[in-house]
Amino acid sequence: MHSVAAHALDEIAGATGLDGLEAVRALYLGRGDGLLTIFRKQLGAVVDPQARRQLGQTVNELCERTAKALEERRAALEAAVRTRQLEIEALDLTRPAPRLCRGSLHPVTKILREVRRIFAQLGYSAASGPEIEYDRYNFTLVNMPPGHPSRETQATFFIDEWRVLRTQTSPVQIRSMIQHGAPQRIIAPGKTFRRDYDATHFPMFHQIEGLCIDEGVSLGDLKGTLEYFARSLFGPDRGIRFRPHHFEFTEPSLEVDISCMVCGGDGCKTCKHSGWLEVLGAGMVHPIVLRNGGIDPEIYSGFAFGVGAERLAQLLYVIEDGRLVYENDVRYLRQG
Ligand code: PHE
């Protein structure tokens, strides 16, 4: 009995965790079959009352001593756990605070401001229109009537039968023509929406539409204006080319490319080995569109262009995956 108790005390002293300690308690003092508990149960079998009392006292003493040792060890182990916890959670109030970073403008904001500045120099004022737009303004009046296949190319968010989230800033052209007539020169920067999402397309993006209407405006004026714009934004050394294209609301239509900023025009992955990157779409405003805007195409002519702000940011700041533009990762934004 004494040696069992001695073992118990040894094991208690050697327990290194609360779980281990609990196992030792169960082994020796467990209710039914603890190695010390059993002695107490067997007391009844001792016939001599004197001897029974003596034995009982000894069993009790041993059990109490073991229980006390268990309690002390438990307290010590719990204290150790607490100390360790405090060490882990310790706050070092003398450590220097993390550096605060200055905010900066979002690349798209910078592009919008810069484009507005460049065109302000050419006498263009800024116009705006609603983001929830009538189908009629977004499509029909810019020569994309119901059922026209070109509507398919602008994956549209529909609000109801008559309204959409505008897929382009071109409806601002029509609104501005109806409101201000001719002559006029505007740019219309704003949010546009399409059901697209990949490395170069976002469901929400910004277009900047330009419109110039006057007597005798020619394709030469359009080319000169866009060349001035591209050189102002991308610098004088970048190659620019005009490529015939098709838009419903302009005739003739063209697209503008600049030489690839990654390879300098030699051909690489970014420019799909062509050396060129598409920047904007443009053309001479279609007579039907002028008429829809209440302007007489026999007297006036005009050009329009549309350019994506995210696209410009990608090209200007060499951003391979355009999704970064809206992920708001501070490491990216900090470079601004
Ligand atoms: N709105 C056209 C588009 O989203 C771009 C464009 C605007 C082309 C104005 C020509 C003139 O594709």
Q: Kindly report the CATH topology of the largest domain.
A: BirA Bifunctional Protein, domain 2
- Major β-sheet, in short? 7 strands, mixed
Within CATH, the superfamily of the largest domain carries the name: Bira Bifunctional Protein, Domain 2
- The backbone outline, from C-alpha atoms, is rod-shaped
Strand content: 15-25%
Element-by-element helix/strand order = HHHHHEEHEHEEHEEEHEHHH
CATH class division of the largest domain: Alpha Beta
The spatial strand order of the largest sheet comes to 1-4-5-9-8-7-6
Count every beta strand, where a strand is a DSSP E run of 2 or more residues: 9
Oligomer: single chain
Q: What class do helices, strands and sheet pairing give? A: alpha+beta
Number of domains: 2
CATH architecture of the largest domain, please? Answer: 2-Layer Sandwich
Small molecules in complex: phenylalanine
Fraction of residues in H or I helices: 40-55%
- Rg, alpha carbons: 41 Å
Mean pLDDT over the full residue set? 91
Unreliably modeled segments: none
Please work out how many helical segments DSSP would assign.
12
Walk me through what this model shows.
This protein is of the alpha+beta class and 336 residues long. The chain folds into two domains: 2-89; 107-333, Bira Bifunctional Protein, Domain 2 (BirA Bifunctional Protein, domain 2, 2-Layer Sandwich). Helices cover 42% and strands 19% of the residues. The protein has twelve helices and nine strands. It has helices at residues 2-14, 18-29, 37-42, 49-89, 107-121, 135-138, 170-180, 219-234, 287-292, 309-316, 324-327, 330-333; strands spanning 125-126, 132-134, 163-165, 184-193, 204-214, 240-247, 250-259, 276-285, 301-308. The strands form two sheets. A seven-stranded mixed sheet has the order 1-4-5-9-8-7-6, sandwiched between helices. It has a two-stranded antiparallel sheet with strand order 2-3. Helix 1 packs antiparallel against helix 2 (18-29) and helix 2 (18-29) runs antiparallel to helix 4. The longest helix has 41 residues, at 49-89. Residues 168, 170, 209, 247, 250, 281-283, 304-306 line the site of phenylalanine.
